[in-house]
Design a protein that fits this description.
By secondary structure, this protein is α+β, with helices and mostly antiparallel strands. The chain has one domain: Translation Initiation Factor IF3 (2-Layer Sandwich), CATH 3.30.110.40. The protein has a four-stranded mixed β-sheet, with helices on one face.
Length: about 80
């Protein structure tokens, strides 16, 4: 399965909680509805943080891929 096409990328590699979520929230505020943000993370806490944040904020988690300790999320801005 191919990853969704990202319109923007946020690399939080090497950053620990809470910074990946702080940066994700800040970046999403600057995107247009329908944009897809690819979030690259190495913090394993994002495995629960990003899906939970999407549910709370009304955004859509399109995909999660983990390879060699790197997590890639695709989130579509809904509002």
């Amino acid at each position: 399965m191919n990853a969704p096409c990202a319109t923007h990328t946020l690399d939080t590699s090497g950053k620990c909680c809470p910074m990946p979520m702080v940066e994700t929230n800040k970046t999403m505020k600057n995107l247009a509805v329908g944009d897809v943000l690819e979030i690259i993370a190495t913090d394993v806490g994002t495995r629960t943080d990003i899906p939970s944040w999407c549910a709370r904020s009304g955004q859509t988690l399109l995909s999660v891929v983990e390879e060699n300790g790197v997590l890639r999320y695709h989130v579509r801005k809904e509002k």
